[in-house]
């Protein structure tokens, strides 16, 4: 009985509830992004209680952050040219 009481007093706190997250990955360039971005308002509406992250090519960085920050919570940009050179085999 006393051991049970001690265990309930030292019970670890439950882990925090993680917010729902959604990640979009688009490493293509400007033309494809322009076509794709038309869907962002729909995604935002359907997943309104989600935190959204966009991973994309640095080529579209200025356009994406300027035009679509109302739909995306966090942006991450990768330099495709660097990675293509770095990962080139042969």
Per-chain topology:
Layout: H1 2-9, E1 21-26, H2 30-36, H3 40-46, E2 51-57, H4 61-68, E3 74-78, H5 80-87
Parallel strand pairs: 1-2, 2-3
Explain what this protein looks like in three dimensions.
This is Lipopolysaccharide heptosyltransferase family protein. This protein has one domain. It has helices at residues 2-9, 30-36, 40-46, 61-68, 80-87, and strands at 21-26, 51-57, 74-78. β2, α4 and β3 form a beta-alpha-beta unit. The radius of gyration is 21 Å and the shape is elongated. Strands 1-2-3 form a 3-stranded parallel beta sheet, with no helix packed on it. 42% of the residues lie in helices and 20% in strands. It has 5 helices and 3 strands, in the order αβααβαβα. By secondary structure, it is of the alpha/beta class. The model has no long low-confidence stretch (mean pLDDT 86).
In short:
This is Lipopolysaccharide heptosyltransferase family protein. This protein has 5 helices and 3 strands.
Key phrases:
alpha/beta, elongated, 3 strands, 90 residues, 5 helices, single chain
